[in-house]
Amino acid sequence: MRGRGCMAAEWLRRGVRGCCAGLRRAGPVLLIATGVVLGLMLLDRAMAVRAWQVRCDDPVLQRAVSRRLQEMAPLGFVAGMPGRVAERLRRLEPDIDTIEVERRLPHLLRIRAEVRRPVALWSGGDGRVMLVDGAGVPYRPLRRGELQDLPLLRTRDRGCLPRLTALLQRVRRLDPRRLAGMSELIVRDDGQLRINLSRGAQWRLPLDGAAPRRVERIMELLDEPRWRHGHWRVDARQRDRWYLRAGYGDRAVI
User: Fold this and answer.
1) Kind and range of the H or E element at 132?
2) In CATH terms, is domain 120-253 a member of 3.30.565.10?
3) What is the pLDDT of residues 91-114, one digit of tens each?
4) pLDDT band (50, 70, 90) for residue 23
5) How would residue 229 be classed by pLDDT, with cut points 50, 70 and 90?
6) Rounded CA gap, 215 and 237, in Å?
7) 3-class DSSP state for residue 128?
8) Which run of H or E residues covers position 175?
9) CA-CA to 9 of 20 to 30 Å: which in 26, 66, 164, 231?
10) What pLDDT digit, counting tens, does each position of 63-73 carry?
11) How far apart are the C-alpha atoms of 154 and 126, rounded to whole Å?
12) Which of 67, 45, 46, 48 lies closest to 56, judged by CA?
């Protein structure tokens, strides 16, 4: 028993000596690592963002970006890197279309942002109304009390939105007055599109690859002297025969 106790004591002494030797060898490395960490912490504080300049083409968005920066403060050297700041602002403010962040050492951020312009509203049947940009991307819900005089897109298929917004932009290029009169674009489950306009006018057509050209032809038709002064319901669902109705009266076949 005594021999075993002596052996255990010897193993313990060897272990302690080994640990001490390891610590002596690792000591310089630990000191360097500690110095680096402390140096980075001091640099992060010393180079923190303390001021910013925000330029924007929309005063509402400019105030929103400034408010977000105040909420994000304090921004250390790492958190205040331009790429990180731009990413956080994009995530917090979906109304941002493009943003550029420039760091002026030691403490200044310069930010230039452009507002995202909605071209339509979207109702997908879930009770929400979303703003939709020119690429057909719904980017945020309509806020309470917010007024947007834009066409309403009614479809449960989100994949239709790029085609619908492209159609709207084509109408804008050809005749902005027609676009101003559009109130709703409704896509049925079978792919048929109904466009409701002011004063009871309506266009019906398939939402397919030929839809832009078909809409253009409808506009050309309604600009002819015979049809120019009425408010017509145009049924263009058939390729070779269209129907025009004046309100709820008799229809003309063309």
Assistant:
1) strand 129-132
2) no
3) 999 999 999 999 988 888 999 999
4) very low
5) confident
6) 11
7) coil
8) none
9) 26
10) 999 999 999 88
11) 11
12) 67
Residue pair 178/219 in contact by the 8 Å Cβ criterion? yes
Q: Is the distance from CB of 48 to CB of 75 less than 8 angstroms?
A: yes
Phi, psi (degrees; rounded to nearest 5) at 61: -65, -35
CA distances from 73 to 50, 77, 100, 220 (A): 8, 12, 19, 57
> Considering the domain 51-115 in this protein, what is its CATH number?
3.10.20
Average pLDDT over residues 73-101: 92
Contacting residues for 5 by C-beta, under 8 A, at least 6 apart: none
**Residues 29, 21: Cα–Cα separation, whole Å:** 14
Q: Is 136 left (phi over 0), alpha (psi -120 to 50) or beta?
A: left
Range of weakest confidence among 34-48, 74-88, 235-249: 34-48
Using an 8 Å Cβ cutoff, are 139 and 121 in contact?
Answer: no
Task: Give residue 197's identity as a one-letter amino acid code.
Answer: L
Cβ-count burial 59-84 (b if 16+ within 10 Å, e if not): eebbebbeebbeebeebbbeebeeee
Q: Which of 9-23, 44-58, 106-120 has the lowest mean pLDDT?
A: 9-23
Least Cα distance to 84 among 99, 96, 70 occurs for 99
- β pairing state of 96-104 and 202-206: unpaired
